[in-house]
Design a protein that fits this description.
Elements: E1 3-7, H1 14-24, E2 29-34, E3 39-46, E4 55-63, E5 66-67, E6 78-81, H2 86-90, H3 94-105, E7 110-113, H4 117-123, E8 130-131, H5 138-143, E9 147-148, E10 153-156, E11 159-162, H6 168-182
Parallel strand pairs: 1-2, 1-6, 2-5, 6-7, 7-11, 8-9
Antiparallel strand pairs: 3-4, 10-11
Helix pairs in contact: 1-6, 3-4
Length: 184
């Protein structure tokens, strides 16, 4: 069974994290990686008509299986970067950036949703690519040299980008199909 690396951290969005976790586990071994091996706190994002920004409330807890520093990216077929606020902090982790660059250097499938694009931007792997993300992260993508496309799903070579949690189904369907194509 091929292994997929799922990045988690405090304030990762529940649906952005749990949908890939459960969908990918149907056919693959999903390994949850984080800055340390411990339990992390996921959050739920809500859109309230009275607010200009997303409201965040506590969600589920999720334990990581491995610390980023202990990950050998050669052991994994794919990488998933969920959204939420976690990427804002995780993008400074040099081991996560090393892992991310490996997936691009070897053209392995990478799935990014919402704020996950911030990790890709920090890793310097977006130049010349077409991507999508939530509108509030458009500048992150463009400053990193990508072309932002306002579509639910954008596939650029081995990169699978999605905007919102309500669009997870098509995102995971496309990503799973690519993983199946590459699975031993």
């Amino acid at each position: 069974m091929a292994r997929i690396l799922l990045v988690i951290g405090d304030a990762a969005e529940v649906i952005d994290t749990m949908v890939p976790l459960y969908r990918l586990a149907e056919d693959h071994e999903v390994v949850k990686a984080a800055p340390e091996r411990r339990t992390y706190h996921l959050v739920q994002h809500h859109h309230d008509p009275g607010w200009d920004v997303t409201i965040e409330t506590p969600g589920y807890d999720l334990a990581s299986d491995v610390a980023f520093r202990d990950v050998d990216p050669d052991d994994y077929l794919g990488l998933v970067l969920p959204g939420g606020r976690a990427p804002e902090f995780l993008r400074y982790d040099q081991d996560l950036l090393r892992i991310t660059r490996h997936f691009f250097e070897h053209r392995k499938p990478v799935a990014s949703i919402c704020h996950g694009i911030e990790i890709l931007a920090a890793a310097g792997v977006l130049k010349g690519r077409r991507v999508t993300t939530i509108p509030r992260c458009q500048l992150d993508a463009e400053f990193a040299g990508a072309t932002y496309v306002a579509e639910p799903l954008v596939v650029d070579d081995h990169l699978y980008c999605c905007r919102f949690k309500k669009e997870c189904a098509a995102w995971m369907k496309a990503f799973v199909a690519e993983l199946a194509r590459r699975s031993p």
